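FW: tagging you since you asked about this chain on Friday. Here's the raw sequence from the shared folder, copied in full. Didn't touch anything.
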Amino acid sequence: MMNENKQTAGRGIGKFGNAARGIWVAMREEPSFLFHLGATVAVVAAAAAMQLSTERWGLLLICITMVQVAEIFNTAIERTCRVLTNTTQPEIRNALD
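HL: got it, structure written out here
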């Protein structure tokens, strides 16, 4: 039983490593992800200057996280489509836009 728990914990840690690698790849290779990171810095600086309440900071961080997650999902879908076909297909093009 004890050995089983260690194996499960090891797989969980590995998944976090994979997630971190995916974020790193997005930061290095996706211009739109970098744009969103820059916008995040600007928004956080503006929010700090406006001295937001704790509740508003929480809402702002939720919104920022949602945008970043949506960008990563979009990147994953784009890369998957490119792997599946290297021909131009209107359906895929429209889905990626």
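FW: The mean pLDDT is 83.
HL: agreed, and The CA atoms of residues 4 and 10 lie 10 Å apart.
FW: great, closing this out.
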